[in-house]
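Researcher: Please predict.
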Amino acid sequence: MASKKTVRKTAARPAGKTQALSGAPGPFARSADEFPGRPFVHPMAVVEGMTTLGEGCSVWGGAVLRADMNEIQLGRFVNIQDNTTLHTDSRSRIDIGDYSLIGHNVMLHGCRLGRAVMIGIGSVVLDGAEIGDGAMVTAGCMIRGGRKIPPRALVIQRGNELKIVEHAAKTALIVAGSLEYVELARRRLAGSYGPFSRQQELDFLAKARDLIEQMGI
């Protein structure tokens, strides 16, 4: 008989206002309570200025969303993972479409991402770049300003060159990952931690495929 997975629970920290890293809100710091749709903002994340968080979004520890010169708009069920930075300038805003997954230690500056996009760990996307729906940018990529990535493309950094393979992205895995992060945020608020079961992972993937079909990606 298969052994049961252990889920560890700890006392949940009370949901409160997002604070700057100094420990007190700055003049532009935003409270998670200000946004409709119940987004999750980790206590050690910073969300400032002209930022919109869609339903089911999550912003994790150490992430900084600084919209002091232009807007940052996140669609529904977007996750911004630990230590990622989003910033704008006077001419370039940031838009991120529904169900997109932004990995750890990413830098996004004045760019536009479509729906169900993955930006892998440590990647950089600069001003004026556009990433098409369903595209998968793997870890460590440098997307320079003004670059256009086609929908559902797989992007790989090979030395100084960027390799783009069209129609090769595993978009269902991106959306499934975004659904996992919705559940991780719920667990974090409940103080519950543990691995997902294989059945849960299959359920996320099945729902992701349905969503992709509905979105027409």
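Model: The longest strand covers residues 64-74.
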